Amino acid sequence: MACRLADSMFLFMGPHQKLSGSQKNLAHCSPGICYLKGERLLQKGIRHQQFLLPKRKTKVLQAVAIPVVPSPADSAEYRKQLAESYGFKKIGEPLPDNIKLKDIINTLPEKVFEIDDLKAWKSVLISATSYALGLLMISKSPWYLLPLAWAWTGTAVTGFFVIGHDCAHKAFSRNKLVEDIVGTLAFLPLIYPYEPWRFKHDQHHAKTNMLTQDTAWHPVWKKEFDSSPVLRKAIIFGYGPLRPWMSIGHWLMWHFDLKKFRPSEVNRVKISLACVSAFIAIGWPLIIYKTGIMGWIKFWLMPWLGYHFWMSVFTMVHHTAPHIPFKYSKEWNAAQAQLNGTVHCDYPRWVEILCHDINVHIPHHISSRIPSYNLRAAHKSLQGNWGKYLNETAWNWRLMKTIMTICHVYDEEQNYVPFDQLAPEESQPITFLRKAMPDYA
């Protein structure tokens, strides 16, 4: 705790006062949130306070002995302050090391694992109907209402992804062939190859928040960030203002290269790639033939971008926050990663309905065999048995601002270092986001 005395100097520096080299190693600051670096993961988020001292009147602080007290990370008040500064409703306590994932699974009621064919096909009906309604809205809307029609249709088509997602996890039907067919068809309007995604997504569940192994997003490596100016610029834009659509890059990078798959997987991957190629070869020319190139943009491209917005946002929010660490395999703990390292986020109810409660994400990571229509019951059970360990929030601007302006480069002690701390001259997009994004929670 003696290191806190040195850290406290950061609180007395104004937002425009420049940090010296040694001071930069002690702390970093962003609008609304200050971080204090201490032993291993001692990060403290607090509301930005305007303590300004004249630059020329500095005094040397003399260190004094301070009694050792429990880490503030163990206190409810600390977590409450941290949650408020990050845009969370609640940040959970650290899960004890001796808790195993099976201990958590065993507390879930058996009924949440049951597949109900009626509910499964009801979700298909909801997605098909809402998507058809969206296409009708696009065809009838004047130009100034098209963004609303695209937002609805992009959200509706995200429901198709969630249906395929259930199929991939064997949570849609008791018949594997039915799941493969439905999953492949559900992914076609998104030109997403089903089998490649399924193989890589299974790895995401097995290695959630594990450095180098998780196939979802993970922090940027420092050596990658420093490798070249061109790549650094691309990374800054990708993890900054373009982050709500970065799933497009993930889609391209992970699902079309046969070299990324085991020999036993390649044949199924080829079938999925053939299906997607057929959809593009037949579907796109047909759309263009009937509606022209502008019709292709209106009826397919814009809803597809809307889908990738939700895909990116859901992925970001589910596993990315300044207090949630990514760990190497030797330190990784499955129960901690799935329960402590996954976030529950509430969205407007219409979004949750069209996306089949994919936002109720913690129980899905406890067991991916839980069907989407049982996620709420499973979450309620987790709240009753493990509630003090859960991270929960509702979508808000402060949450997005925190992720997009802070959660960048991997750091073993701080979890993340923002781009503008490492390369301030090239991080104008991040500076712009800090100023432009609202801070409402």
Compact overview of the structure:
The chain has 441 residues and is mostly helical. Helix content is 53%, strand content 5%. The protein is built from 19 helices and six strands.
Separation of the first and last Cα atoms: 31 Å
Largest sheet: 2 strands, antiparallel
Overall morphology = globular
Structural class given helices, strands, pairing? mainly alpha
Strand order of the largest sheet: 1-2
Mean pLDDT figure: 87
* Uncertain runs: 1-70
Give an overview in words.
The chain is mostly helical. The strands form three sheets. Strands 1-2 form a two-stranded antiparallel sheet. The chain has a two-stranded parallel ribbon with strand order 3-4. The protein has a two-stranded antiparallel sheet with strand order 5-6. Helix 6 runs antiparallel to helix 7, helix 6 packs across helix 12 and helix 8 crosses helix 12.
Give the tags.
53% helix; 19 helices; 441 residues; mainly alpha; globular
Draw up the topology in text.
Layout: H1 3-8, H2 21-26, E1 27-30, E2 33-36, H3 76-86, H4 101-105, H5 117-140, H6 146-168, H7 176-187, H8 194-206, H9 222-225, H10 229-239, H11 247-255, H12 263-319, H13 334-340, E3 343-346, H14 349-354, H15 362-366, H16 375-386, E4 391-394, H17 397-406, E5 409-411, E6 415-417, H18 419-422, H19 428-436
Parallel strand pairs: 3-4
Antiparallel strand pairs: 1-2, 5-6
Helix pairs in contact: 5-6, 6-7, 6-12, 8-12
